[in-house]
Design goal:
The protein has no helices and eleven strands. The chain is mainly β and 140 residues long. The protein has a single domain, classed as Jelly Rolls (Sandwich).
């Protein structure tokens, strides 16, 4: 069964912008073969400003194939049903910041999945925040 992702963007702040509606099927690198593995859907509660690995590449039970078509989805779902737009979490790869997810924000991005490229999360405050995430990858 294929894994597909869809994004829909509309805006009234960009004159002449007709919107974007895109769907992609997650496939293995250089092929039309469906991606075959996932870390599974996970939820992680964070309550300090310490940086934590949400995906430690070297610790995956099944070794992802390096430098392939891996993707990760991450969403800041707030805490106890409350989405606080003031609570941000910086997402990084190999200790390099990628961007900040405030309450309700999400991202889907490609990964190299080499052992050193762990995916990290660093909350801005000690306020409790919950991330949901899932990595899709090719099995080595």
């Amino acid at each position: 069964m294929a894994t597909t992702c869809t994004v829909s963007i509309s805006s009234d702040i960009a004159p002449g912008f007709g919107g974007i509606n895109e769907t992609m099927t997650l496939t293995q690198a250089g092929t039309l073969t469906d991606i075959d593995s996932t870390t599974g859907f996970s939820i992680r509660k964070l309550s300090s400003t310490s940086t934590v690995d949400i995906v430690t590449m070297a610790n995956e039970l099944v070794e992802p194939k390096d430098s392939t078509a891996a993707k990760i989805y991450i969403r800041n779902i707030g805490h106890r049903g409350e989405i606080d737009k003031a609570v941000g979490v910086t997402i990084g790869v190999n200790a390099e910041p990628i961007g900040k997810l405030f309450g309700g924000d999400w991202m889907m991005m490609p990964l190299t999945v080499i052992d050193a490229d762990d995916v990290t999360a660093t909350p801005d405050t000690d306020d409790t925040v919950v991330l949901e995430y899932m990595m899709f990858y090719e099995e080595a």
